[in-house]
Amino acid sequence: MSMKKLTSRQQLFLDFLAKHYANHGYWPSIRDIQDHFQLKSTNGVLGHLRALERKKYISRVPGTARAYHLTKPGSAPVKSAPIHEPASIPFAMENMLEIPIYGSIAAGYPDGVESSGVVAKLQIDAETARVRRKDGIFALRVRGESMVNAGIFDGDTVILEQAQPRDGDIVAALIDGQTTLKRYIQKRNQTPFLKAENPSFPNIYPITELIIQGVARSIVRSLA
Fold it and tell me: How far apart are alpha carbons 194 and 213 in whole angstroms?
């Protein structure tokens, strides 16, 4: 079955997608497309992407709700970027979030390593990230193995939300001036403490202060 003819504008969009992939090895983000075509909002980008989908020039990535990849007549789909490249995760058509990554966090013994600001940005849809709002969302890269029994491994990227923790939440915490990723335990009439999910690491009790910086909502993992 022949593919429907594109308008000149749609062809420009398709050419940009293909050229970007050929030059960089991964998909452009929604923001990349918006900036390239100097559009005032993402609505214009999404409208053209939906048109390309209707005309069968892009198709949904299997197993996802709103992620897409490029197709070519008579050839296999162009692969989307690997998951460990934050800017190259297949773009979602709605509810796309651009989440700042503020360096790393120890998932082991707490340490005094401080964030140097935004080191990268992660583009992912709100459903996958398991968050409902855009404000107060950030990400950190995991260093260490104290949370392996919770399915969080060294090298993962954890997406967090600034929120009030509940008993059992996994949190990024500042405890006595040092940071760590642990499970927050709050029992009635007891001082809250941090629990590791690896028997090789002890529970950690605050001496002076325990400040919760974010509650973990989801994990992004490299498949490489």
Answer: 13
Contact criterion met (CB below 8 Å) for 165 and 183: no
CA distance 113 to 116: 9
- Asked if pLDDT for residue 221 goes beyond 90, the answer is no
Which of residues 52 and 24 earns the better pLDDT score?
52
Please identify every residue annotated as catalytic.
Answer: 146, 182
Q: Do residues 156 and 170 touch, judged by C-beta distance below 8 A?
A: no
pTM, two decimals, is: 0.58
- The first and second tokens of residue 102, run together, are 């503020």
As a whole number of angstroms, the distance between CA 60 and CA 44 comes to: 19
Domain spanning 8-81 has what CATH number? 1.10.10.10
Per CATH, the homologous superfamily of domain 97-220 is: Umud Fragment, subunit A (2.10.109.10)
pLDDT of residue 85: 36
Q: Quick one: which H or E segment has residue 15?
A: helix 8-24
